Amino acid sequence: MKKDILRISVGAIFFLCALLIRPVPESVTILLYALAYFICGAPVLYQALRNILRGRIFDENFLMAIASLGAFLISEYPEAVAVMIFYQIGEMFEHYAVSRSRRSIASLMQIRPDHANVRREGGVRTVAPEEVSVGEEIVVRPGEKIPLDGYVIEGISALDSSALTGESLPRDVVPGDEVLSGCVNLSAVLTVQVERAFHDSTVSRILDLVENAAAKKSASENFISRFAAVYTPAVVTAAALLALIPSLITGQWSVWVYRALNFLVVSCPCALVVSVPLSFFGGIGGASRAGILVKGGNYLEALANTEIVVFDKTGTLTEGVFEVSAVEPVGIEAGQLLHYAAAAEHFSSHPISQSIQKAYGNAVDETTVRGVREIPGQGIEAQVDGVPVWVGNDKLMQTLGIRIPPVQGSGTIVYVARDGTYCGLIRISDRIKPDASQAIRQLRACGVKKLYMLSGDRKQTAQEVGRLLQLDGVYAELLPADKVEALEQIETQKSAHGKLAFAGDGINDAPVLARADIGVAMGALGSDAAIESADVVLMNDQPSRLATAIEIARRTVRIVRQNIVLALTVKAAVLILCAVGVTGMWAAVFADVGVMFLAVLNALRALRRLEQ
After folding, report:
1. 228, 345, 376, 509: which has the highest count of C-beta atoms within 10 A?
2. pLDDT band at 191 (very low <50, low <70, confident <90, very high)
């Protein structure tokens, strides 16, 4: 960049000298113009020649070279040099804009750890994160990045996860808590047992996702690529005809060649070719600064057209932290009811199972539990203390032919039966997330027409959540396959150009995430399913970030459309004026370089982070 500034400055000095110093011999003036031209235009001329030798003739370098050299041939020296100087300034400005956009992405890239302190051979050795194996222990000192995903086994500290989630509030961790690579340890030494190898770690997956995002072009970017491929040869042919046909008729070769050269300068599609991908790249960068990972410009453009949003319930609109709120035994003690349920659920890692075991509070003797069998979508069957026990939903009880009493109120109901006899129920509650209502309000405010929720929970509980959040519809008691079917039913309500977004926690929603127009994984940094299946990853568990993502996408698309309209309108107007001789080379320079300046400045707005 510094070399470019120096080169352009020297060329500009020669240009000003040729323009202002009088009196001097004409040969000296022409020499000064030539020096200025070749100093500023050498990279363009070199690139044009190089591309011609490679068979790529019709590009902006070719247009600028032929137009400016032609201006020299018809003795329009100031215009020829001005074209090159302003074009080079525009190119430099473009590189600055791209660099700034890349720096925004690079701020996210700084989450990549440099080293890991691993315990080996009775001491702590510093190695590359790639050299640490799963199961090894690493030591993370205050101020260091956590290099690999794992669990804290020693130490209490606070973590700065802002680079991952955009959240500035530190998170406290204690032994047993999961920690993700890329977070910064703030206050005390932590010992972490590694759970994933570096290539499978959160930081590695995120870096790979962001680095490859630019490769997935939006429809607008693909349109510009196709447009430029047809447009450039067309305008070169038009310029040649403009120079040739009127000249043959009138004999005024210099007049029509000059107009044709102006036509070529104006025709450069720089503003379109540069500003459209830069806008999407800036939008992706701006989203990453807000803790939102978008896998490509195509998904950003799709997100901007979102008409319907469908949410998963547990872990998305609700906290997914289940607690036993009531135990209602029938014929046995409450403690015994919890014992049967906790024993049957002992080998399950499901949040509901964990909440039952937590409420039981005692260790389960695994030798007393036999024949555990999961019944998909219904519950679990097991032998506990030699007696058959069933723990699950009302469908399981119906399958067994066991009569259960009607239940009032909200919450997840887990029924327990022993030896074919109903023993009671356990009511489990899940709290709505604090910002779920805000998310719904923001989504409606930004133009989303319909909001639905899918849940595997019982209808009464799901409908209560839907009523509190004022959703347009709730689908309850769904198996994973049922969720896809429900999504397809909802999808019929969108318009021809509208899109449907599904937001889930990314753990058991992979089929629906993949089926939706835009799959949005909520707060699922550690979830392989989220990273693989989702198109957009919200790097914390706040549903309100989905509204932020849609606003960023819509702002980016607005900027792209503004740039397309600006470039095409100005260029069309000046092309016509150049062809009929109303304007000269200076207007052509403005139409090319000036419009590129304005378009790139406008594109930079996509980098700005929206207020949360």
Report:
1. 509
2. very high
Rounded Cα distance, 313 and 121, in Å: 48
Q: Does residue 312 carry a catalytic annotation?
A: yes
Which of 169-183, 249-263, 428-442, 512-526 has the least mean pLDDT? Answer: 512-526
Residues 6+ apart with CB under 8 A from 123: none
The pLDDT value recorded for residue 530 is 56
Residue from 312, 509, 541, 592 carrying the catalytic annotation: 312
Find the helix or strand (DSSP H, E) in which 478 lies. none
Dihedral sign, CA of 73, 79, 85, 87? negative
Identify whether the C-beta of residue 268 lies closer than 8 Å to the C-beta of residue 60: yes
Lowest-pLDDT range of 60-74, 402-416, 454-468: 60-74
pTM to 2 decimals?
A: 0.63
Instruction: Report whether 181 contacts 145 (CB < 8 A).
Output: yes
Three-state DSSP state, 174 = coil
Q: Which domains does the chain have, with CATH numbers?
A: 116-147+149-195 (2.70.150.10), 319-431 (3.40.1110.10)
Would the pLDDT of 331 be above 50? Answer: yes
Going from the C-alpha of 50 to that of each of 70, 81, 84, 564, the distances in angstroms are 19, 21, 18, 29
Strand 137-140 and strand 190-194: the pairing is: antiparallel
Question: How far is C-alpha 283 from the chain's CA centre?
Answer: 9
**Cα 200 to Cα 126: distance, rounded to the nearest angstrom:** 20
Contact 152, 191 (CB under 8 A): yes
Q: Is 409 left (phi over 0), alpha (psi -120 to 50) or beta?
A: left
Q: Is pLDDT at 526 greater than 50 in this prediction?
A: no
Distances (CA, A) of 79 to 36, 118, 166, 512: 12, 65, 49, 59
Q: What is the mean pLDDT of the chain?
A: 81
Contacts of residue 114, Cβ cutoff 8 Å, sequence gap at least 6: 145
Place of tokens 């001789």: 581
| Of 553, 585, 601, the residue nearest 271 (C-alpha) | 601
Residue 145 is given by DSSP the state B
252 contacts: CB under 8 Å, gap ≥ 6? 246
Q: 10 Å Cβ neighbour count for 598?
A: 18
